[in-house]
Amino acid sequence: MTDTTLTNLSNAEVAKYDTSHVFHSWSAQGKLAPLPIKTAHGSTVVDFDGNEYLDLSSQLVFTNLGHQHPRVVEAIKKQADELLTIAPAHANQTRAGAAELILEHAPENMDRVFFTNGGADANENAIRLARQVTGRDKVLSRYRSYHGNTGAAIVATGDWRRQPNEYATGHVHFFGPYLYRSEFWAETEEQECERALQHLDSVIRHEGPTTIAAILLESIPGTAGIMVPPAGYLQGVRELADRYGIVLIADEVMAGFGRAGEWFAFQAQGVTPDLITFAKGVNSGYVPLGGVIISKEIAAAFDERVFPGGLTYSGHPLATAAAVATIETMTDEGVVEHARELGTDVIGPRLRELAEELDVIGEVRGTGVFWAIELVSDAAARTPVAAEYMGRVKAALVARGVIPFTSDNRIHIVPPCTISSEELNRGLDVVAEVLRSEAVS
Ligand code: PLP
């Protein structure tokens, strides 16, 4: 079967076709049963048998504008007719336009954008910039974080994906605030914040401040559990970075571009990083794109000196055309404000109500369209539910027409920022039904 234009295949045929030839991410290949998807629109995806599913995952939390937004599709087609590709050394108005629009939403001290193909290489290059300007080597990042799957980015990662990939050196991890599973014996958000900052200060002093190039931080850790930092935490990290001359990198790959109800999640805490990495929501993943937003000071350090980094497809016209159309559409349609309201008016209240009703929900937390439901088999001991239970919950959600994002013992409610309240309520009804009916054994 080599005719990939075939569209009348069944789910079973496509699944077999795929698993016979495609090597999948993060998986034992022999156990895969991928859900075949033929097409999509808005917050809905459609399989090859014609079944529709409400996408509460935004795939890997990237379709912030929903699927197939006509304005972005049109911009990609127009760019394809004019110029499909051009090397990074050339100037091009689409690339410049995307950089200008991204900078419009970033803090004032931000001056330039270096484009990459996705989030991991954005973090690689942010780390490279920090090492170049400080002349230091070490990068501090959180346990319970994800920064990507390339050499340095995967070693900066705080979760299990780091361990089989620990080849790059100079990476040190610390604990961030996470009151529900506090590493600091804290009982309040204030204590957690203060102690997490004391801990970070201590790690910096023990590592030697003059050896540390960067603190790399997801403004809101995403895959690791959507831990919205307590008030004052990001400011505290900013102060430590300033005190010790360390570059502060905000990883906004997942949290940025509307997801947290802000253009950038750190804006809710009023801090200004030195470098910001982005990807995913910048163009809803329609064409792969990421990048680093660079402060005036750091950009100026390379006025005379060569930046030792680059990528063949840096600022690809199709990807940047999609970014221009995405950002303009998000602005014109008030998408960021809509995401914020969905968090305040729909997701937050409904999940808190459900948490009151069901013992299996240990905690709900989030903001905008970026929420986690933490599932526990023993509420008092906060014991995470077993993988087998998560498997059942996930299968039950899909069987009822909802695609969830699950990670460890959590369901993440991360729909497109454009989802309607009606669709969202329907999806949350299904989540509630499934959690009520699946027994934690
Ligand atoms: N940083 C964060 C916070 C992410 O969530 C991800 C991906 O999920 C990455 C970086 C890596 O991005 P990519 O998969 O585009 O390389």
Helix content: 25-40%
Question: What CATH architecture of the largest domain do you see?
Answer: 3-Layer(aba) Sandwich
Helix and strand element order: HEEEHHHEHEHEHEHEEEHHHEEEHEEEH
CATH topology of the largest domain: Aspartate Aminotransferase, domain 2
Bound molecules: pyridoxal-5'-phosphate
Low-confidence stretches: none
* Main pleated sheet: 7 strands, mixed
Looking across the biggest beta sheet, what order are the strands in?
Answer: 4-10-9-8-7-5-6
Shape: globular
How many domain units?
2
Q: What is the averaged pLDDT score?
A: 96
Short description:
It contains 13 helices and 16 strands.
Explained architecture:
With 441 residues, this protein is of the alpha/beta class. It has 13 helices and 16 strands. It has helices at 11-21, 58-61, 70-82, 93-105, 119-134, 151-156, 189-207, 233-244, 296-300, 317-332, 335-357, 387-399, 421-437, and strands at 39-41, 44-46, 52-55, 110-116, 138-142, 171-174, 212-218, 247-251, 275-278, 290-295, 361-367, 370-378, 383-384, 402-403, 405-407, 410-413. The strands form three sheets. It has a seven-stranded mixed β-sheet, sandwiched between helices. Strands 11, 12, 13, 15 and 16 form a five-stranded antiparallel β-sheet that branches. Strands 1-2-3-14 form a four-stranded mixed β-sheet. Strand 7, helix 8 and strand 8 (247-251) form a beta-alpha-beta unit.
